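Changelog note: in this version the structure field was regenerated for every chain. One regenerated record is shown below for reference.
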Amino acid sequence: MTASPPSRPPFDPEQVPLGTPEPGMPAVDPAHLQAGWLRARFARTPSWRPEVFEDVQIGQRITLRDASVLIPLIARPQGMQLLLTRRTANLHVHPGQISFPGGSRDAGDASALHTALREAEEEIGLQAAWVEPLGSMPVYTTITGYAVTPVVGMVDPQAPLRAQASEVAEVFEVPLAFLMNPAHHELRTWDAQTGLGALPTLPNAARRSFYAMPWTSTDGRRYFIWGATAAMIRNLYRLLIA
């Protein structure tokens, strides 16, 4: 039997035009991107409202499967880093895209935290003993049918990592200060009823929008962070400026 090809988005997200983001949004204070302040923030979370994206609205109308991701923060001498992965190109869901380590909840998982830590160990070899859980963020529902609980954790800088080659092509870190500056949050949007060039038309939707956070490493590698991953990073930003 011939395997079905990987499921890719019906458009190139990098070709979606730039929209107009909300003006006047501040960057997170660098003093707040320290381990002590982050621990205190999650210990006493203030009142805040996550942004609602189209994926969330669509997900509310379909049967969802519980899942979790780990949002791993690592304190380096050069500043706090956020760890991300690039999925392998042969996966059937989101091949080649940037994501957090995570996946579906198993029947034996005791909690969303358990799921996130188990999946992180499976995908990148990160053992739970090297992770200090800080807390969780609101569930994010995806267009692919998952109700994802983002779990934020501090990872020991000495933690050994080993990417599972069948799922993870690369593990890399992005400066948290870059991601917590809305000047780097690109709002991309198009008319979803008429399409635009290579962009598809979408029924029952006037516009389609998402955030993207393109980042280039010091050695010149470019990463296009978008979709659910960027949405959860955007909500982390909202939490930290609350």
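Spot check on this record: The chain has a mean pLDDT of 87. Residues 227-241 form the longest helix (15 residues).
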